[in-house]
Amino acid sequence: MCGIIGYVGKEDATPYLLDGLRRLEYRGYDSSGIAVLDKDGGINLQKCAGRLENLRRQIGDKPESGCCGISHTRWATHGEATDENAHPHFDQSGKLVLVHNGVIENYQKLRDDLEADGHQFLSQTDSEVLGHLIGLAYENQNGVKESNSEERLVAAVREALKKVSGTYGIVVMHVDAPGFLVGARLGSPLIVGLGKDENFLASDVSAVVAHTSDAIYLNDYDLVCLKSDEFKVERIDGGAADFQVSQVEFSAEDVELGDYPHYMLKEIFEQPESIENAFRGRLSDEEASAMLGGLQMSPQELRDVDRIVLVGCGSACHAAMAGEHIIEALSRIPTEVEIASEFRYRNVPLDKHTLVFVISQSGETIDSLGALREAQRKGFRVLSLVNAVGSTIARESDGGTYMHSGPEIGVAATKSFTSQLTLLTLLGLLLGRMRDMSVSDGQEILREIRALPDKVREVLKQNERIKEIALKYVEAPGMLYLGRQFNYSTALEGALKMKEISYIFASGHASAELKHGVIALITEDLPSVFVAPKDSVYEKNMSSMEEVKARKGPVIAITTEGNQELERIADDVIYVPDTIECLNPILSVIPLQLLSYHFAVARDCDVDKPRNLAKSVTVE
Ligand code: M6R
Asked: Which residues pair with 526 in a beta bridge?
């Protein structure tokens, strides 16, 4: 959460910073700010509450010129979304500015001590305390030559960071060291973008990809010094850092909206390609199996796996729940799902043949990362299923597989979810074929996986029809989502999509649970969305639907093409092409994504930046 970008080069920093903030806004959008070192050696700071648009207006058409600056877009943790709490923050001297992503857990004690020494704070944030600490350390630097401001600043950052506990990705700038930025990270992402006569520090590569595709993904405890034509990466404690320059695998165009009104819609419509990217090069006709070399496990090691624990948050957790069904059905390996935030603080019994799999689109979700580290601390091999190349979870896991979905910018997960399901099916297939799955069953799965992109296109053709349904129910006070077996998690995912972007209450349930309590909610006003393909539990689902109709509840049904029968019971029916049972969620979730999208648009909600949320949750 929070996006930061720093620029040092030969051009005016402001346009670079504003453009970078625009691309990082999905990480937080409560307030934003920018500080540029102007040509007279002063710091020009502009910041305000609200969307980036407010900051643009404040800056107007007379941006302060200067070739070095830092900026920030905030997701509030400590202190409300006000002008004062927006970053960057000055130190006590007013000569140093800092932007911070993360949480300084011991900030109150540090603040009390600093206040006792006469420091005055202008905000309620934990971040400002860190700025003051660094500024104080800078003033007090002995042992470093007075004249070498850059060295003094680096030493001050090192010293101050020793005193804080918590997480940070920071960038610091000082008037005494023009054209020089210092960054450091622990627990919050930070990358270096290397350009020609210009360099960047940012929370993620999307902020710099318009200017360079050379990036360094910093590790925890790395510290970087940056000038326009020079960079140095070290450990915060002064040791040598292990880093490499990587090529960003997407372009600036990939992070543009194109002709779509919202990223969410764009990403929903990208699913035929993103699903294909997930399985491309990973299907083996010869073995009627999947090839997942990135797992870095020998056939023997894979055979020895006798239990799988899938870990994730939000939509990634819902994908894990579908994965549990898929893997167990295809390979018969007992599989469990753990919410990452619970797993990391729970003593989950694992044994040496347990495989832990962390699922995360961003690869930066702090709870998922915490779960990974907890399992590794106990000596377990942890694999990951991640979209963002070079992200922390991808780098720290012992192997895994990338989704290759391309950047997902809308806060609501869409294409990453269907890619996760695709890859979990490949995993189930691979493990299944190492055990009892027959060649012909393996071949059928391969056939159906290959057919998915076209089937998804068929579903997307119903966009207008789904919009009509959304408009019909747009005044509904809430929505229930019901599904069974493979589609129980589809129901949970549909409800999450509706809640997070439309702000109406929605909840997902296993259909048969209705009569154990939820049915009490049914009224003429509360629609129920049933995910009811023609599968092994279809009749059971239909009975639950009848129970809702008997109480006058409106029903929207998602079912298999050609199955007209539900027209008799449901008020509205959406059809998805037939496929094998374990792949149905990939098709059935798409109408639910579209339903929530159109619902939110009709209710005038900010689809891509829903209130109180951020795309990548990097604080606990
Ligand atoms: O980046 P991750 O996949 O780790 O993110 C996990 C959740 O924060 C994410 O899926 C969230 O629930 C989405 N907003 C759901 O649409």
From this structure: none
pLDDT per residue as tens digits for the range 142-184: 666 666 999 999 999 999 999 999 999 999 999 999 999 999 9
Lining ligand 1 with CB less than 6 A are 313-316, 360-362, 365, 368, 411-413, 496, 500, 616-617
Give the atom of ligand 1 at the shortest distance from the alpha carbon of 615. 14
Query: pLDDT tens digits, residue range 311-357?
Result: 999 999 999 999 999 999 999 999 999 999 999 888 888 888 999 99
> What CATH number is given to the structural domain containing 593?
3.40.50.10490
Q: Count how many domains the chain has.
A: 3
| DSSP designation for 308 | E
301's CB contacts (< 8 A; 6+ apart) are none
CA of 73 to the centre of ligand 1 (A): 19
Same domain? 92 vs 212: yes
Q: Which domain holds residue 49?
A: 3-255
Both structure tokens of 369: 């990362």
Closest CA to 341 of 617, 28, 612: 617
Atom index in ligand 1 nearest the CA of residue 617 equals 8
Positions annotated as catalytic residues are 2, 615
Q: Are residues 248 and 110 in the same domain?
A: yes
Whether pLDDT at 583 is above 90: yes
Q: Tell me which residue has its CA closest to atom 4 in ligand 1.
A: 360
Percent of the chain with pLDDT over 90: 90
Ligand 1 atom nearest 313 alpha carbon: 6
The C-alpha atoms of residue 494 and residue 413 are separated, in whole angstroms, by 11
Query: What is the DSSP pairing of strand 335-339 with strand 307-312?
Result: parallel
Beta strands of 419-518 (E only): which ranges? 478-483, 505-510
AA letter at 335: T
Same domain for 250 and 276: no
Residues 320, 359: Cα–Cα separation, whole Å: 7
Residue that terminates a domain, selected from 255, 284, 304: 255
pLDDT band at 40 (very low <50, low <70, confident <90, very high): confident
Q: Hey, CA dihedral for 412, 414, 415, 421, is it positive or negative? A: positive
pLDDT per position as a tens digit, 363-388:
999 999 999 999 999 989 999 999 99
Task: Report the C-alpha gap between 128 and 86 in whole angstroms.
Answer: 10
Residues 358, 478, single domain; the answer is: no
Domain end (from 407, 431, 461): 461
Q: Are residues 477 and 587 in the same domain?
A: yes
Residue among 227, 229, 232, 230 nearest 68 (CA)? 227
Whether omega for the bond prior to residue 453 falls within 30 degrees of 0, making it cis, is: no
- Ligand 1 mean position, distance from CA 617 (Å): 8
Q: Do 422 and 512 have their domain in common?
A: no
Q: Are residues 576 and 497 in the same domain?
A: yes
CA R_g for the chain: 26
* Confidence (pLDDT) at 352: 85
pLDDT in tens, 70-92: 999 998 888 999 999 999 999 99
Centre of ligand 1 to C-alpha 548, Å, is: 31
Domain match, 503 and 369 both:
no
**Strand ranges (E), 283-436:** 283-284, 289-290, 307-312, 335-339, 354-360, 382-386, 400-402
